[in-house]
Amino acid sequence: MHGLTSRTDSIIVQSGARTGVENVSVVGSTAAIGTVEFEPGLKRDLPDMLDRLIPPSQSYGHEQAWHDGNGHSHLKATLIGPSVTLSVSEGEMAVGTWQQLFLIELDIKPRVRELIVTVQSEKTDRDPI
Amino acid sequence: MHGLTSRTDSIIVQSGARTGVENVSVVGSTAAIGTVEFEPGLKRDLPDMLDRLIPPSQSYGHEQAWHDGNGHSHLKATLIGPSVTLSVSEGEMAVGTWQQLFLIELDIKPRVRELIVTVQSEKTDRDPI
Amino acid sequence: MHGLTSRTDSIIVQSGARTGVENVSVVGSTAAIGTVEFEPGLKRDLPDMLDRLIPPSQSYGHEQAWHDGNGHSHLKATLIGPSVTLSVSEGEMAVGTWQQLFLIELDIKPRVRELIVTVQSEKTDRDPI
Questions:
Q1: Surface of A (57-76) touching B: CB under 8 A
Q2: Class assignment of domain A2-121?
Q3: What does pTM read for this prediction?
Q4: Interface predicted TM-score of the whole assembly (ipTM), two decimals
C-alpha cells in the first residue's frame, strides 16, 4: 500500500485550485484506489481482510484460462475499485486528519503503475455549494 | 444510516443545474457514502452484512496501536468508500424511484460528520452525451 | 455482466474530448458498475464471489417487507457501487489493455437498465495535471 495524499495535494497546489473535486485513477485490473487511516495496523488489516474475503488459495475461473495465479487479485481490485473522487477544499483534498488516499497493489508480482490525477476547479472563490 | 437524497436534491435545485454530475463526499475514515433502496429491512441488512464480512469481535492490527476498538469501522468504511459521483438529470440526481444516497456511520461512538456536495453543471440544455 | 468500454469510448469520440474524466452511472438499486479484466473466467468468478459474500439463500430484512427474494441483489449492488469515474486520456478511457468497464445485473429477473455517461473535457490540449 502506498499513501498518495502528499503527492496529490502537491498536484492540487500546482493547479491553483482552491475548491472543486479531484479524481485519482489507477490504470490496470489488479490495483485499486481508496482511502484509509494510514497507520501500520490498518496497512496490515486491509490486505488481511481482502485475503479473508477473497482467499488466494481458492480456485478461480480466471486461472483455468491464464494459470497466472492472480484471480483473487482481480476480484479484490474490482471490490475496492479503480478510482476515488473527493472534494477539494481550501486548496487540498478534503479528508480527515489521518485519512489518506492510497494505492493498493493486489497483483502477485511487482508492477509499475500509472496513476492519473484530474483536478477540476470552481471558477469562483465561493465554497462548494 | 442517513438518507441524503432530499438534501442533495435541494442543493442541486439551488445550484440551478439541470444536467451534469454531483459528487457527495464525507470527511473522515469511519463513515461511508453509498446508494441503497432506503427501507427499514435494508437499513438493518447493510450493517449486518458489514458485521458479517468484517466482524467487530475480531482482532485487528489497528487496535494494537490505538486500543479504541474501531478497527472494523475503518475497514468497513474503506470497503464501501468515502464518496459517490452520480449523474444529475432534469435537475435532480438520476437514481431509481426508491434508491437513495446514504451516509453510514461506522464508528463505535457518535460523530459529527462533514459532508461536501459538489454539483458540476453542463452549460447547455442538452441531455448528457 | 455487460462490457461497456466500446460503447463509452464511442461516446467520448462523439464528444470530442481528448483529456478529462468520464462518469458512468446506472439508475436503480440492483445493478452496479465497475471495472474488471473482461474474460470468461472472471465473468463467472465475480458473481460467484458476490454469492459467497452475500448468499442469496440467507434471510434478509428486505424480504420480510417485500417478499421479492432480492435482498441479496440490493446488498451486492451497494457493495460494488452504482458508478465509476475514470480518466479520459488521448480520447479514450484510461484503462489497462484487458480492463473493461462493466455493468453487472444483480436482480433476480431481467431488467431494462438506464445508463448515463457524462464526459467532462479539459479545454486545453494539455495532459491531465
A1: none
A2: mainly beta
A3: 0.94
A4: 0.93
